[in-house]
Amino acid sequence: MKVHAAALVLTLCASAMAFSPSSLSSSSVVVVPTTSSTRWSSTRLAMSTLDRPMSSSTPPARVSPDAGHVPDWEGRRNPTSPDEFMNSDPTSPNVGETMWECPLTRWDAEGINVREAQDMARDVPHCPLEIRASFEDNALGAEYFVRNRERLRDDLVKHGAIWFRGFDLMKTVRGNRLMHESLGLQPCLDPLHSSGLRKFASERDALYEEVNKPSLRQHYIGLHNESTAKRTAAYAAFVCFQRATEGGGRFLVADGAAILAELDPAVLERLYDRRVRISVSNLDIPPALPSLIKEGIRSLVDVAVAPKFDMDLEMMYEMDGKPGRLQAVETAESPINRHPVTGLPVWFNNAHNHARKLRDRRPCGVPEVGMTEVFYADTMDPLDLEDCLEIKRASEKHITALSMEPGDVLLVDNYRALHGRDVFQGDRFHAVTWFTWDRNEEWRGDERRIVEKNAFNKAINKMMDWLPKDFVSDQS
Ligand SMILES: [Fe+2]
C-alpha cells in the first residue's frame, strides 16, 4: 500500500512537472491586428481588463497580448506534407547522440546601478535584424552562410536576433542543419531536456519541436529566455517549416536591452533589490492531511522527482496561499543580467511568461499543476499587480510578432533576446535547435549528452501526446 501511495505521488509530480511552464517556455481568439489603430485599441482593451481585481465571480477576460510591431505577411506556400520538410540527410553524422549538455547559466548580476544600466541599454541596434534572401543569395544555398559567417555572427550579437526571410535552403531539415553548421554553431540539449517537455523533431539533426501540440495551440507563450536559473542555451535557431494552417501562431521576439531601458526605474530597482524566484509546478495535497504526512510527501518529491529535472528546486508549501499546495521553486535570481560577451545589462527574466496575474488574463491552456508563479525572493510574496502590469507594458511595447513562413529562421542570442509565440488554429510545424558556446569553450564545459538518461524524457512525451486536442476550452 505504501508503495502504491508513493507511486501515485511520483506520477502526479511527474504529470505536474510535465506541464511546467518553462517548457511552454521554454509557445481564444487570435488577435492579429492589421492596422496600428486596431493594434492600440486592443492594447487598451487588454489593459482595462487587467486593471480589474481578480475574483471568482468575474474571471479576467482572456485576451491575447499585443505586440509593438507586426510585420507584413507575405504568403509563401505551405508544404503539402511533412515529407517535404522532414527530409534529413542519412549520410550526415548523427549529432543527436553526442550533443553538448546545455551550458550552465552565466550570471553576472552583482553591483548593477539600475539607472546607469538603463542608459547603457538604450539606443542599441534594433532587434531583430531582418535579412531577405535575394535571388543570388538563394542560388548560393549553404555557401551564402559560409561566405557571410563572420558578419552574421557579429550581427547576431549586435542586434540580438536575425530574421532570415525567404531562404529556400531552410525549408527542409537537411538544409536547416546545413545553415547552422555553415555558421559554425554547435548544438546542445534543451535546458529542460531531462524534464521530457522537449521532443525531438529530428534527433539526429539536433532539432527539437517547438510547442506545436494541438493540445497547447490555444496557449499563449509569453516572453522568456530559454533558461532556468541553472542552465541557459547560448543561441537558438527557430525555423518555420509550416505556418499555422488556419491562422495565428506568430513568433514573438523582443530585445532584453530595450525592455530594460523601457521599464519604470522604480519597478526595476524594486525587482533588482528584492530579486525573484519562479515556481514551476504545483502539486495540490489535501490540506487536511496531518503535517507529518505532508512533510513526508515533500521529502519524497524533493529526493525522488525534483532531481530528474536538472534544476535547483526547493519544495515549498502554500507560497501562493492555496491550502495544501506544494510548489517547486527555483533559486533566487536577478531580473537583470550582464550579457556574457558584451557586458551589456539586459532584462533577463521570464516573468512575462510565468507571472500568474498575467497568465490568468490571457489564453492559457495549462492545467493547474503546471501553472507558474513569480515571487519576490525576499518575502516569497507573488509579484503584485502593478509590477506585473509594468512588465507587461514594457515587454509588449518591444515585441515584434513575426509572420514566419516556410524556410524562415530566427537566429537568437538567447542572453539578449526573449521569445514567445501567439495562439494559433490548425496545424503548425516550427522547430528549434539550441547552441552552446563555440567561441568561449571554457563556458561550454565538457559535458556531453548521456543518452541513457533519456527514459524520463520519452515517458513524459508519450503522456503529453495522449492529451486530447484543445482540452482547455474556457478561453473567450
Ligand atoms: Fe522557448
From TrEMBL:
<dbReference type="GO" id="GO:0016491">
    <property type="term" value="F:oxidoreductase activity"/>
</dbReference>
<dbReference type="InterPro" id="IPR050411">
    <property type="entry name" value="AlphaKG_dependent_hydroxylases"/>
</dbReference>
<feature type="signal peptide">
    <location>
        <begin position="1"/>
        <end position="18"/>
    </location>
</feature>
<keyword id="KW-0732">Signal</keyword>
<feature type="domain" description="TauD/TfdA-like">
    <location>
        <begin position="148"/>
        <end position="429"/>
    </location>
</feature>
<dbReference type="InterPro" id="IPR042098">
    <property type="entry name" value="TauD-like_sf"/>
</dbReference>
<keyword id="KW-0560">Oxidoreductase</keyword>
<feature type="region of interest" description="Disordered">
    <location>
        <begin position="50"/>
        <end position="97"/>
    </location>
</feature>
<dbReference type="Pfam" id="PF02668">
    <property type="entry name" value="TauD"/>
</dbReference>
<dbReference type="InterPro" id="IPR003819">
    <property type="entry name" value="TauD/TfdA-like"/>
</dbReference>
<protein>
    <recommendedName>
        <fullName>TauD/TfdA-like domain-containing protein</fullName>
    </recommendedName>
</protein>
